[in-house]
Write a structure and sequence with these properties.
Helix content is about 70%, strand content about 0%. The chain is mainly α. The two termini are about 30 Å apart.
Length: about 160
């Protein structure tokens, strides 16, 4: 297996475990187990409002729909990444690939925050998902380049 493929699979595993972690609380609660620790873990990064969250078995995920969509989108983007770019190519794509979805997500947030309109559950989910999807095309090459560089530095240190 090529080293880039190994690094890619490690990253994919990490992002899938992260997604599983914030998706797990409703399943735990459904079976009568506590999910308080997981909800508290995600509390600093998400408002966790019930009305803005996806639900499974009637219980909300540990993050809101926008955050969940970003994370699920990033996982999907990571899965499809090798279909669009070779893993050995660690050049970053055009910044507009993430800039446009980021601008749309910020606009969606801002119209509600400023009070000039209202975003919706659907708009939060779509803008978050598209941004997360595009973000993977930046994170994957940076991850692979970082791991390769760390491995090279470690090898050079051992040769000294």
């Amino acid at each position: 297996m090529k080293e880039e493929t190994k690094y890619f699979l490690i990253f994919l595993s990490l992002i899938l475990v992260y997604d599983l972690l914030f998706t797990l609380p409703p399943v735990l609660l459904h079976f009568g187990l506590s999910a308080d620790l997981i909800y508290r873990f995600f509390q600093p990064v998400c408002d966790q409002l019930d009305s803005r969250s996806f639900h499974i078995f009637g219980y909300k995920l540990a993050v809101c729909s926008r955050c969940a969509s970003i994370y699920y989108g990033a996982a999907l983007g990571t899965i499809i990444y090798p279909l669009f770019r070779p893993l050995r190519d660690t050049r970053l794509p055009n910044p507009l690939l993430a800039g446009v979805p980021l601008a749309a997500m910020i606009a969606d947030f801002s119209i509600n925050y400023i009070g000039i309109g209202h975003n919706t559950f659907l708009s939060r989910s779509i803008t978050g998902g598209v941004f997360g999807l595009s973000l993977a095309f930046f994170i994957v090459p940076v991850w692979i380049a970082f791991i390769k560089e760390m491995k090279t530095k470690r090898r050079l240190q051992h040769e000294e």
